[in-house]
Amino acid sequence: MHEARKKFWDGVRAEFPLLIGVFPFGMIYGALALNAGLSALASQMMSSIVFAGSAQFVTAQLVKDAAPGLVIILTIAVVNLRHMLYSASLAPYLKDLSLKWKFLLSYLLTDEAYAPTILKYEADGVNKTSHWFLLGAGFSLWFIWQTSTALGVFLGAAIPESMPLDFALPLTFIAMVVPALKNRAMVAAALSAGVVALLAYALPFKLGLILAAFAGIIVGTVMEGKK
Predict the structure, then answer these.
(1) Where are the domains of the chain?
(2) pLDDT tens digits for 124-145?
(3) Taking the model in full, what pTM does it have?
(4) Helix axes 111-124, 2-35, angle to 10 degrees
């Protein structure tokens, strides 16, 4: 258990720089969800059940725009497809875990938890306690996300629109993506997705994000095949 605790706190420490950006992001979501017409309970429960910041932001915006329920469900499903890629990437390292551990870690798997974990596993490999690193990273993010959402919900309109909290989100994702860009295929995928996201920004229902994701996947796959 000593080694497991050490791995857990290693995961927490590795996650900490990303939590600085996540906290204001959660506050913005809480306030936005209320402004979109969701109740305080529904806003907080979405953070607990869905636990996916980008999907929650999209949902709040679509609810505000009175989008059909089917559109909301399909949009969330597409936005969260990247989690299947994260799972597939980590699966070889976690294949020997029990089903209970896999369920728990799959719930805690997010962009921010995946980034330091895959870098750790690729650099050091895994042993019988390595999954505690992902648990530490995932749980610390979960705790901060619930706390920051609650603050956003309860503060609500008290958060001035002039407060520049939204700058933290792009900085957080930049901090996650840059260390993972290890070859030309990864760089090309990131750049192409970024360009498409900017060009398609004005599309309704956040379709620009979906197109950007597909563009990144296609370009990365093509570049990878040319090696």
Answers:
(1) 2-158, 181-227
(2) 999 999 999 999 999 999 999 9
(3) 0.75
(4) 160
